[in-house]
Design goal:
alpha/beta, five-stranded mixed β-sheet, single chain
């Protein structure tokens, strides 16, 4: 059964909220948190399935920054089709520079699951992301989603 026809019970309000952010013409960011096993990843995975042609769904892990960047770029390349160029990236700053210099015509959804693992592999990750949001991402047609465990807050941030 495909995502569009899949039965999805009890998350109508959450999906409506995600659609509202998706349909915005501004940069949007959603940080989703909660206890383990409550359906955060499933919710965003379902949403990603509804917008699969322009959604980068990436799950961070406890490996190195270089490995996480490579894995993210593999997913990014599936959407933007930038070619082997992305294989050379080793740092998040390389990714942000690429996004800065790339024309994004359609809404680009970026979902980062297990966000806290990226912080574990490089404690400066969150500050780099903040700088990227302030100087690059908020000028783009991007809907950024970060998913984490309970020590993250749920918020809606509109720039």
């Amino acid at each position: 059964m495909d995502k569009e026809n899949e039965i999805f019970i009890g998350r109508t309000a959450e999906l409506s909220f995600l659609e509202k952010l998706y349909n915005s013409r501004n940069f949007e960011m959603l940080i989703l948190h909660g206890r383990r096993r409550v359906g955060k990843s499933y919710l965003l995975g379902h949403f990603a399935g509804l917008h699969s042609k322009n959604t980068v769904y990436f799950t961070g892990d406890k490996s190195s920054e270089k490995t996480n960047v490579k894995n993210f770029c593999d997913e990014l390349n599936k959407v933007l089709k930038a070619g082997d160029f992305l294989d050379s990236f080793e740092k998040w700053s390389d990714v942000y520079s690429f996004i800065k210099n790339t024309q994004i015509k359609e809404r680009l959804v970026i979902i980062i699951d297990e966000f806290t693992y990226l912080y574990s592999s490089n404690p400066a990750y969150d500050s780099w992301l903040q700088i990227a949001i302030d100087t690059i991402l908020k000028k783009k047609n991007i809907f950024l989603n970060s998913v984490g465990k309970t020590h993250w807050i749920f918020c809606f941030w509109e720039c």
